[in-house]
């Protein structure tokens, strides 16, 4: 007999382990715990004690033990204990409609299923009968219910008996304990006990199936009926797996739902690691893209749609879509403000931190130190020469240069770098070698204030001319002191007094006449009085106290620049403050680079250039535009960041249509917003009388909020110079019976200057009044279709003058309005009478073709006249 542990035996006997322990103590069997092993003899004693009904210690009596065993097998009341709870409990594990029956061989191990409705358990238990042909015992074992069943119809009983008989000798250990034991079997008898023996060895012992577990039964059944059991097990397994599948599907679905919910609502709460794990399998199947982790994002005051999308790690399209939902149409490169960006990001589930970060440009400006008085030294004045055409500007510049360069510098005189310095009485003067107010104003329009003093050159034999007046006004607009140089005094018809008189009309009154304007009479040709002119320049400079700090990072203006085939981009720069050194990192506009080499105006290499010194600089990445400010920065990386920013801004500006700087249409708004305190106006008219009339009328209509300042007025076509002045001074241009010339038209486009053209002064005054009070209602906008040049005229009786023309620009149409322009002045406005190509009437003639034109009620067409064709388009005013 196999050894058993206390708790096993207790279980077998259906008593508590602790009761068993107690009883063992009482019986003198020493055990430590319920895990202690019992000897065979002890087991028998205990069984006898419990099953023998006595509680009497029979351990030492073998016969009694045998008897006990026999008694046990026949004792109905103890049968149940003998069988233990295991069998009864485990029977339902087996198919209820099947029963093991022995084969003819009677070998339990080869039992087959046999359908038997009523008594599955009984029959099964029959297989466990220790002794064949003992239904009583069986009944006893199975308890009352089974006994009752066994009293049932004979047939089943017979079947049972048959079965029992077929089974052959009972496999009970009792037989083995008999003298001879197993060997007493008859030859025909099967040896089911062997299996039980084996089983006994495997703790099945003499109890046979009593101690079988459910699994054990199944195993046994498998052995016995492999196919059926397998099928059955397979079915079961399928059912189980279905359930498991169902369960797990639910689980998955649940998971998916959770996932979906989370991705829609709480995506920001995702733990990256967790996601990685939990989504690993799913990603392959149903999640094409990994979930976005929604970390709070940080933005500045503005951000482009693209950058915003990148910060959120989402497609820019989603941002654009969201913006559209919010009623904003934006392109990928468009900038949106922080508020809009925040709304969009919030909508997409992102938190936003707005970090107002100063742009690099502002940082650069802020990095500019305020100079202390003690750090400042007097610098040379920077002078520009202006004046009317052919009055001798270039001649004067050359004369000064030749007369005042030192002998050592003479070799470099031919060098032209856009600016040069001369020395007079030990003091230097810097001349900007690009004469003319147009260049001066073009620089000013870029924000460059280079000039300290303007020299107004007027030919003594010619007097004040239109460009003289322009130059005066340009200099005044720049608040630059003017020195008048009356040139060509060597000429016999020179009349300096006349020039002085004319200039008084423009508020330039010589000192000897009680004014404060310095006049110097010179001859560039004869190099007369040049020293005096320089003397006066130094005097004005002294009054102006032009100072700069040479001990700081250099800053200045690009005077001119070009791409040299051998040297790359070459720029002439004027250092205005600090000292520029070779090796400095320099930026100008979007051009940057390390100063590779520097040359002064004589072509000599220099290693540094202080305030007011013009130098040629090599090392720029590209050609910087004239008038651009340059800076040097210590940190190269910072410098490049500024350039990046400038590139971006440049691109944005190119993309958006820049509104006019100041325009009558939005003047009222600009006044309201405090952007405009002064309305600058440039008046151009066909006659001087109109200019003055308009000037006087306009200067009276100023209000408390805005005053009108006529910064320039002149006769003739509107020129590029007028447009540049308007651009630099944030002014509008008003024309009376004049038109802009070709260069001016181009400048209007690029500078976005508002120009207004009138035929009647009253209309101009009314418009400006209305604009100032926000009541301007521009109903029509003029659209110029094209321009035509009159090349020949033919007078035909009854028809009038026919103009043989050539379309120089755009086109002319039969129904167009036309204006006839002579020397920039509008001499007629009306309608076309006829438009012909050869002898045929045509509806339109395109650029590059000839045509014949007659104008309604106008015959004074002359060769060289320009005819401008235009239409008036209605303009819808947008509601504010
Ligand atoms: N007699 C005389 N002629 C002079 C004098 N200065 C200049 N000229 C002549 O005037 C003409 C024009 O001189 P520029 O120096 O070219 O005049 P500008 O103002 O520079 O002319 P633009 O460059 O066309 O604006 C030239 O033929 C000069 O020789 C002078 O002092 N006396």
TrEMBL record:
Primary location group = cytoplasm
- Cited NCBIfam families: IF-2 (TIGR00487), small_GTP (TIGR00231)
Q: Where in the cell is it found?
A: Cytoplasm
- What are the alphabetically sorted keywords of the record? Cytoplasm, GTP-binding, Initiation factor, Nucleotide-binding, Protein biosynthesis
> Spans of biased composition, class Basic and acidic residues?
90-118, 138-157, 173-185, 194-205, 232-271
Question: Where in this protein does the record put region G-domain?
Answer: 381-529
Q: Where is this region: Disordered?
A: 49-216, 232-295
- Which Gene Ontology terms of cellular component type are present? cytosol
Which Gene3D superfamilies does the entry link to? Answer: 1.10.10.2480, P-loop containing nucleotide triphosphate hydrolases, Translation factors, Translation initiation factor IF- 2, domain 3
User: Which InterPro entries does this UniProt record tie to the protein?
Assistant: EF-G-like_DII (IPR053905), IF2_II (IPR044145), IF2_N (IPR006847), P-loop_NTPase (IPR027417), Small_GTP-bd (IPR005225), T_Tr_GTP-bd_dom (IPR000795), TF_IF2_bacterial-like (IPR000178), TIF_IF2 (IPR015760)
**HAMAP family referenced in this protein's UniProt entry, alphabetically:** IF_2_B
**Residues holding GTP:** 387-394, 433-437, 487-490
The family note in this entry says: Belongs to the TRAFAC class translation factor GTPase superfamily. Classic translation factor GTPase family. IF-2 subfamily.
Q: Which residues form the Tr-type G domain?
A: 378-547
Q: Which GO terms describe its molecular function?
A: GTP binding; GTPase activity; translation initiation factor activity
Question: What is the name of the protein in this document?
Answer: Translation initiation factor IF-2
Query: Where are stretches of biased composition, namely Polar residues?
Result: 121-137
- Source organism of the structure: Desulfallas thermosapovorans DSM 6562
Q: Which gene encodes it?
A: infB
Function, as annotated:
One of the essential components for the initiation of protein synthesis. Protects formylmethionyl-tRNA from spontaneous hydrolysis and promotes its binding to the 30S ribosomal subunits. Also involved in the hydrolysis of GTP during the formation of the 70S ribosomal complex.
Give one Pfam hit by family name.
EF-G_D2
Listed Basic residues bias regions: 277-286
């Amino acid at each position: 007999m196999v050894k058993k542990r206390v708790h096993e035996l207790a279980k077998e006997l259906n008593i508590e382990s602790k009761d068993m322990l107690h009883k063992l103590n009482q019986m003198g069997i020493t055990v430590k715990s319920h895990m202690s092993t019992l000897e065979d003899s002890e087991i028998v004693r205990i069984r006898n004690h419990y099953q023998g009904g006595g509680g009497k210690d029979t351990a030492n009596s073998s016969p009694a033990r045998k008897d006990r065993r026999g008694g046990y097998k026949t004792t109905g009341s103890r049968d149940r204990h003998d069988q233990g709870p295991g069998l009864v409990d485990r029977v339902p594990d087996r198919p209820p409609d099947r029963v093991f029956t022995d084969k003819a061989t009677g070998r339990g191990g080869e039992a087959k299923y046999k359908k038997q409705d009523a008594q599955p358990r009984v029959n099964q238990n029959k297989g466990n009968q220790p002794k064949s042909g003992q239904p009583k015992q069986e009944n006893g074992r199975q308890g009352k219910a089974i006994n009752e069943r066994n009293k049932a119809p004979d047939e089943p009983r017979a079947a049972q008996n048959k079965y029992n008989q077929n089974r052959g000798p009972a496999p009970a250990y009792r037989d083995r304990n008999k003298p001879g034991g197993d060997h007493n079997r008859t030859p025909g008898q099967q040896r089911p006990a062997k299996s039980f023996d084996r089983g006994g060895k495997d703790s099945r012992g003499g109890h046979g199936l009593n101690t079988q577990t459910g699994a054990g039964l199944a195993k046994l059944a498998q052995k016995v009926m492999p196919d059926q059991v397998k099928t059955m097990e397979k079915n079961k397994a399928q059912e189980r797996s279905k359930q498991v599948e169902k369960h797990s599907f639910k689980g998955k679905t649940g998971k998916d739902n959770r996932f979906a919910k989370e991705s829609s609502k709480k995506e920001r709460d995702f733990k990256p690691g967790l996601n990685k794990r939990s989504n690993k399998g799913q990603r392959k199947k149903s999640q094409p893209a990994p979930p976005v982790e929604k970390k709070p994002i940080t933005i500045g005051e503005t951000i482009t749609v693209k950058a915003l999308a990148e910060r959120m790690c989402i497609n820019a399209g989603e941002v654009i879509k969201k913006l559209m939902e919010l009623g904003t149409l934006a392109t990928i490169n468009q900038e949106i403000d922080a508020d809009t960006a925040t709304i969009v990001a919030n909508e997409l589930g992102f938190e936003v931190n707005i970090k107002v970060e100063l742009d690099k440009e502002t940082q650069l400006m802020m990095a500019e130190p305020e100079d202390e008085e003690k750090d400042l030294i007097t610098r040379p004045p920077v002078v520009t020469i202006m004046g009317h055409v052919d009055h001798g500007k270039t001649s004067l510049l050359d004369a000064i240069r030749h007369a005042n360069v030192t002998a050592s510098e003479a070799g470099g005189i031919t060098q032209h770098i856009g600016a040069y310095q001369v020395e007079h009485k030990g003091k230097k003067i810097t001349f900007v070698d690009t004469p003319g107010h147009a260049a001066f104003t073009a620089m000013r329009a870029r924000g460059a204030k280079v000039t300290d003093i303007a020299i107004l050159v007027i030919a003594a034999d010619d007097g004040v001319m239109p460009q003289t007046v322009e130059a005066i006004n340009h200099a005044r607009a720049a608040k630059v002191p003017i020195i008048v140089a009356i040139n060509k005094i060597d000429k016999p018809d020179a009349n300096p007094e006349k020039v002085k008189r004319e200039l008084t009309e423009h508020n330039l009154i010589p000192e000897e006449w009680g004014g404060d304007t310095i006049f110097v009479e010179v001859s560039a040709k004869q190099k007369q009085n040049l020293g005096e002119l320089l003397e006066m320049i130094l005097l004005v400079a002294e009054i102006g106290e032009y100072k700069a700090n040479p001990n700081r990072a250099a800053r200045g203006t690009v005077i001119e620049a070009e791409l040299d085939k051998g040297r790359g981009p070459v720029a002439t720069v004027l250092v205005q403050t600090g000292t520029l050194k070779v090796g400095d990192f320099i930026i100008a506009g979007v051009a940057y680079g390390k100063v590779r080499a520097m040359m002064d105006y004589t072509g000599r290499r220099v290693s540094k250039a202080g305030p007011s010194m013009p130098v040629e600089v090599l090392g720029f990445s590209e050609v910087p535009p004239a008038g651009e400010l340059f800076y040097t920065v210590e940190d190269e990386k910072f410098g490049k960041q500024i350039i990046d920013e400038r590139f971006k801004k440049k691109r944005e500006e190119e993309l958006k249509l820049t509104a006019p700087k100041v325009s009558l249409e939005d003047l009222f708004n600009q006044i309201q917003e405090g952007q405009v305190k002064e309305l600058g106006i440039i008046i151009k008219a066909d006659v001087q009388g109109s200019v003055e009339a308009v000037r006087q009328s306009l200067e009276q209509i100023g209000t408390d909020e805005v005053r009108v300042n006529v910064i320039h007025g002149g006769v003739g076509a509107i020129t590029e110079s007028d447009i540049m002045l308007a651009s630099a001074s944030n002014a509008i241009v008003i024309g009376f019976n004049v038109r802009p010339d070709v260069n001016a038209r181009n400048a209007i486009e690029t500078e976005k200057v508002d120009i207004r053209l009138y035929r009647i002064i009253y209309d101009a005054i009314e418009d400006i009044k209305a604009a100032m009070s926000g009541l301007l209602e521009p109903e029509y906008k003029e659209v110029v279709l094209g321009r035509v040049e009159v090349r020949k005229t033919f007078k035909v009786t009854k028809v009038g003058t026919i103009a043989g023309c050539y379309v120089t620009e755009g086109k002319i149409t039969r129904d167009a309005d036309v204006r006839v322009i002579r020397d920039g002045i509008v001499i007629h406005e009306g309608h076309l009478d006829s438009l012909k190509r050869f002898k045929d009437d045509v509806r339109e003639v395109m650029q590059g073709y000839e045509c014949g034109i007659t104008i309604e009620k106008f015959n004074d067409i002359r060769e060289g006249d320009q005819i401008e064709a235009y239409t008036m388009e209605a303009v819808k005013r947008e509601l504010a």
